[in-house]
Amino acid sequence: MNKLFYPAIFHIAEEGGFWVSFPDIPECLTQGDNMEQAYEMAVDALGLSLFPYFENKKELPVPSSPSAISVDDGFLVIVEFDIESYRRRYSSKAVKKTLTIPEWLNEEAISMGINFSQVLQEALIAKIDHTISN
């Protein structure tokens, strides 16, 4: 069960954009300036709402059948959530890595107060995101 699918209602916001609610997870709300951003924010909000269930080994809210949901204002969208991908990205468990860099680069970075771990994490995430998106 790596991927979950929850129905979401995308409401058109008065000020423009969309706000999103999940009928099966009332505390899960988000918004976006456009459809793409609203969907991405919905995936993130769903992750923030569901991850504690996994961490605490609690039973997940059961997704409603789309045909059982009545939508008065807005439209229904099924939001896909990949729990393994989310867990890998946001897990706080750290592992130690040893690496070798040129001495001059080390000295410059230290003099600038650069956090080596943070820079490496950011660079790896950017590289992985770039590879996945291509």
CATH architecture level-2 label of the largest domain: 2-Layer Sandwich
Q: How many helices in DSSP terms?
A: 4
Spatial ordering of strands, largest sheet? 3-2-1-4
Shape field: elongated
User: Average pLDDT, to the nearest integer?
Assistant: 91
Main sheet record: 4 strands, antiparallel
Low-pLDDT residue spans? none
**Overall helicity:** 40-55%
CATH class of the largest domain: Alpha Beta
Question: Could you tell me the radius of gyration in angstroms?
Answer: 20 Å
Number of strands: 4
Overall domain count: 2
How large a portion of the residues is in β-strands, by DSSP E? 15-25%
**First-last Cα distance:** 26 Å
How are helices and strands ordered from N to C?
EEEHEHHH
Protein structure class: alpha+beta
CATH topology of the largest domain: Double Stranded RNA Binding Domain
Pfam families: HicB_lk_antitox (PF15919)
Protein name: Antitoxin HicB
Domain HicB-like antitoxin of toxin-antitoxin system: 6-106
Describe the structure.
By secondary structure, the protein is of the alpha+beta class. The protein has two domains: 3-90, Double Stranded RNA Binding Domain, CATH 3.30.160.250; 103-133, no CATH class. The protein has four helices and four strands. The chain has a four-stranded antiparallel β-sheet with strand order 3-2-1-4. The protein is elongated. The two termini are 26 Å apart. The model has no long low-confidence stretch (mean pLDDT 91).
